[in-house]
Amino acid sequence: MVSKHAAPGAFPDETVTPVFRHDIPNVDRRTMVAVVVRYPPGGRSSVHRHAPSAFIYAHVLSGAIRSQVDDGQPRTFGPGQGFYENPGSRHMLSENASAIEAASMLAIFIVDPDEDELTIADDDAGMPPRPDRRAASRRLI
């Protein structure tokens, strides 16, 4: 479920397990999707973005996850802590902060039900245009 269109080997260090998917009955055209992302010691994801409509909340379950969204500062989150990604964000860094212990997080997506490609590997050369942040925020209201 990482992405059915990602290049082979694009996400070599992570394991993504789908755990929940359901249309939100009182929010028109939105689906909640939850996945557990597991990183081995020293594991990391490639730079990536998510489905254009996706708002994501990530909640650390175990270990320590280092994350950087867009041009924000890298931060490390421990169990019980979390962060979010607005629609159109680029996830510059997502990795296990430990070289000796595994880490995991629950990622919850609120997404258009027609978007089944949740995670797309990026590179600087192939980066698509990003939506205006204010427009993306208005869509959430």
CATH class of the domain at 21-104: Mainly Beta
N-to-C CA distance: 27 Å
Note the main sheet: 5 strands, antiparallel
Helix percentage: under 10%
Tertiary shape: globular
- At the fourth level of CATH, the homologous superfamily of the domain at 21-104 is Jelly Rolls
Q: Tally of extended strands?
A: 10
Q: Trace the largest sheet across and list its strands.
A: 1-2-9-4-7
Strand coverage percent: 35-45%
- Tally the helices: what do you get? 1
Rounded to an integer, what's the Rg over CA atoms? 15 Å
CATH topology of the domain at 21-104: Jelly Rolls
Which stretches are low in confidence, meaning pLDDT under 50 for 5 or more residues running?
1-11, 124-141
Helix/strand structural class: mainly beta
List the secondary-structure elements in sequence, H or E. Answer: EEEEEEEEEEH
| Mean pLDDT value | 83
**CATH architectural category of the domain at 21-104:** Sandwich
Brief overview:
This protein has 141 residues and is mainly beta. The chain has one helix at 133-140, and strands at residues 15-23, 31-39, 48-50, 55-62, 65-69, 75-77, 82-85, 90-96, 103-111, 119-121.
